[in-house]
């Protein structure tokens, strides 16, 4: 199965280079401002993922308002959830060029604009554009930086940090479900969306908190983990060092380009000093030239890193375990999204609305989801526990719950299954950790962008598919059965590839390590 923490190389004492050159750690790594990054990511998950988990409330309002089929109406929620994740690879390009902070602030404005414009919707198709596309793209531009920044600021307690930050999804689902219910009852769904748009502007504040680490700090964090990267390269036939040596601009290239720019700018400095007449014009021209040249270099480096990660000789897709991870993501997320979108309708069919109004089933999932993320994160950080094994066990539990849910027709039975769904879905906090173990910190943004893109495709087609099955059979049972079976196929892919990799290069890497 997947390598344990010891196999991956969390013992840093074996690297002679690290011993010979002691590194003074940045106090903000695993502490200091890192916890502000966790807070920022936590709030992002509340405002984005929490709001999306509460869309079942608005879905019922849209069904009554526009009188369309369940399959068509479900596309509004699916577009918003799906596009948030599907745009991940392209947001990775933005991050490479502009950084996480700028990308998140722009995304916060777009997300708020999508909510506000949706308040004036005349039909479902209008919501496709305003809520599905506009708010969805804005959400994606904030969500990916929030995850990536936590990965950059934490090394020893990554699983716990990601677990704490992503608990915002559970808190958000609980809070936003209650908030949207209250707002829709008091002011109507249109005004509720307008108010939610104003609240979403706080995403810009969350983005402003994402203070970037200096390149020096990132290099230090990368050097400390270099031994881990080499071992992972032998075990998984892909590593950050391989990517770096196959066309991605390295640190030496960056220094050469910066030196060349400084030389060019330095050679024209005498023009600024000489002759005071026209000095204002020359200074303005030089500043403009400097800005354009720096922007050009940044764009070139960012695009080269992004392009090589996806299409170059060192593509992330040369890692077969990572490819299996992507295939799993294509089937997994819909199984988690479908209950949130359609549970309110299922409760109504079973005549359980009175009990559900006291304590909604979606709120049960949300609350237990919080504990699931934290507990699974703490367990995964234990030195004797493999993160990959915890990840797989949680997936098996979740797929079992999805297949069992249609058999429950009482409130107590549904509540128990929903609680198990909430706890086992806490594995979401482990996804960035597993991704980083596969590809390294440097390529986390692009790799995780691919993973959430696959999740987005799953979320995009899952709820409309469930609604379409209902329109045909007048039952949601087959929707859960089919989603569960597809989910199981994805888990099988996760089990097969690590075993294949273990038989081939793993034995060789062990011998080399002993030598």
UniProtKB/TrEMBL annotation:
- Location within or outside the cell: Membrane
Q: Does the keyword Flavoprotein apply?
A: no
Supply the source organism's classification: Eukaryota, Metazoa, Chordata, Craniata, Vertebrata
**Alphabetized InterPro entries for the sequence:** MFS, MFS_dom, MFS_trans_sf, Proton-linked_MCT
The record's gene field reads Slc16a14
Q: What is this protein called?
A: MOT14 protein
Q: Which PANTHER family does the record match to this protein?
A: MONOCARBOXYLATE TRANSPORTER, MONOCARBOXYLATE TRANSPORTER 14
Bilayer topology reads: Multi-pass membrane protein
Q: Where are the transmembrane segments?
A: 33-55, 75-95, 102-120, 126-148, 160-180, 192-210, 321-341, 361-379, 386-405, 411-434, 446-466, 478-496
GO molecular function list: monocarboxylic acid transmembrane transporter activity
Q: Name one GO cellular component term.
A: membrane
Q: Which PROSITE patterns match?
A: MFS (PS50850)
Which Pfam family, any one of them, does this sequence belong to? MFS_1
UniProt keyword annotation of tRNA processing present: no
Region annotation Disordered: residue ranges?
A: 235-256
User: May I ask which residue range the UniProt record assigns to the signal sequence?
Assistant: none
């Amino acid at each position: 199965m997947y390598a344990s923490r010891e196999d991956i190389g969390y013992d840093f004492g074996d690297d002679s280079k690290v011993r010979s050159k002691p590194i003074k750690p940045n106090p903000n790594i695993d502490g200091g401002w890192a916890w502000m990054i966790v807070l920022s990511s936590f709030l992002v998950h509340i405002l984005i993922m929490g709001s999306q988990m509460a869309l079942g409330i608005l879905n019922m309002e849209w069904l009554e308002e526009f009188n369309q089929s369940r399959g068509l109406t479900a596309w509004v929620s699916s577009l918003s959830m799906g596009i948030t994740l599907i745009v991940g690879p392209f947001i990775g390009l933005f991050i490479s060029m502009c950084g996480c902070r700028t990308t998140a602030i722009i995304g916060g404005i777009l997300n708020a604009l999508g909510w506000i414009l949706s308040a004036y919707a005349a039909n479902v198709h209008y919501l496709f554009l305003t809520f599905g596309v506009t708010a969805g793209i804005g959400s994606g531009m904030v969500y990916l930086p929030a995850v990536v920044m936590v990965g950059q600021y934490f090394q020893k307690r990554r699983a716990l940090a990601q677990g704490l930050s992503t608990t915002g999804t559970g808190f958000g689902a609980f809070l936003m479900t209650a908030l949207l219910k209250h707002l829709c009852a008091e002011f109507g769904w249109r005004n509720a969306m307008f108010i939610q748009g104003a609240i979403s502007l706080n995403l810009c504040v969350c983005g402003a908190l994402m203070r970037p680490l200096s390149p020096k700090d990132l290099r230090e964090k990368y050097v400390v983990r270099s031994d881990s990267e080499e071992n992972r390269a032998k075990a998984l036939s892909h590593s950050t060092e391989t990517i770096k040596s196959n066309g991605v601009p390295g640190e030496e290239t960056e220094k050469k380009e910066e030196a060349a720019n400084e030389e060019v700018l330095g050679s024209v400095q005498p023009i600024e000093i000489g002759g005071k007449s026209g000095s204002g014009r020359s200074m303005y021209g030089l500043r403009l030239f400097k800005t354009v040249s720096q922007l050009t270099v940044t764009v070139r480096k960012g695009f080269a890193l992004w392009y090589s990660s996806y299409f170059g000789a060192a593509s992330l897709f040369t890692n077969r375990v990572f490819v299996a991870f992507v295939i799993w993501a294509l089937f997994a997320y819909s199984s988690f999204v479908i209950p949130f979108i359609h549970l309110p309708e299922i409760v109504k069919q079973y005549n359980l609305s009175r009990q559900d109004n006291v304590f909604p089933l979606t709120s049960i999932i949300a609350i237990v989801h919080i504990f699931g993320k934290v507990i699974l994160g703490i367990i995964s950080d234990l030195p004797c526990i493999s993160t990959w094994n915890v990840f797989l066990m949680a997936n098996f539990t979740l797929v079992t719950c999805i297949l069992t849910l249609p058999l429950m027709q009482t409130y107590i039975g549904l509540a128990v299954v929903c609680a198990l769904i909430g706890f086992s879905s806490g594995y979401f906090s482990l996804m960035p950790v597993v991704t980083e173990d596969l590809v390294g910190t440097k390529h986390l943004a692009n790799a995780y962008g691919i993973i959430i893109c696959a999740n987005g495709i799953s979320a995009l087609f899952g709820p409309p598919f469930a609604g379409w099955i209902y329109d045909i059979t007048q039952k949601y049972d087959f929707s859960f059965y089919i989603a569960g079976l597809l989910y199981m196929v994805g888990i099988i892919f996760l089990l097969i590839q690590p075993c294949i990799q273990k038989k081939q290069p793993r034995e060789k890497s062990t011998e080399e390590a002993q030598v």
